[in-house]
Amino acid sequence: MNAIYLVRHCQAEGQEPDASLTAAGIEQAQQLASFLANKQIEGIISSPYERAYRTISPLADAIGLPIKMDERLTERILSGQNHPDWREMLRRTYEDMDLCYEGGESSRTATSRAVQVVNEALNSGWKNAVIVSHGNLISLLLKHLDRAVGFQEWEALSNPDVYELSFTDEASSFKRIWKP
Fold this sequence. Notes:
The structure is a single chain. By secondary structure, this protein is an alpha/beta fold. About 40% of the residues lie in helices and about 20% in strands. The protein has one domain (about 5-20, about 35-125, about 155-175): Rossmann fold (3-Layer(aba) Sandwich), CATH 3.40.50.1240. It has helices at about 25-35, 50-65, 85-95, 105-120, 135-145, 150-155; strands at about 5-10, 40-45, 70, 130-135, 160-165, 170-175. Helix 2 (about 50-65) links the parallel strand 2 (about 40-45) and strand 3 (about 70). Helix 1 packs across helix 2 (about 50-65) and helix 4 packs across helix 5 (about 135-145). The chain is globular and about 40 Å long. Pfam families: His_Phos_1.
């Protein structure tokens, strides 16, 4: 495999699984399709959340590929409760990968499921692939590749965002290729 394009979904109406893209998000999805159209994509895997698969649908339609839905790409649940200090709670989970709030998922557990999807894409035989997910899970996957990634990098993500992941026998690397 040459590259995996890790895509954060476009602007959405909310955080619920069925939250749709905003009007701006729909336009962003079209721009994203144009941006990725010449990348020789052979496989597309997406979170089943509507905002994720609607983000990549224009590309899938344009290049004639199905979108494989994968539950392991859903957003990480920080806690089963709403907390006014959720941002500080989230920040702590980048420092302690095993920290798990009641009803939530630790960073380590969430990272593990995302890494499984990446490994399967790497072993798929595809030349290039697109993986579409959500901000926290994407930032945790980037942290897996570079421990220096943390809360600040999560905060800097845009909707949409695109990172190109490269893998060789010796190392892996990533670079942000979307210019918001």
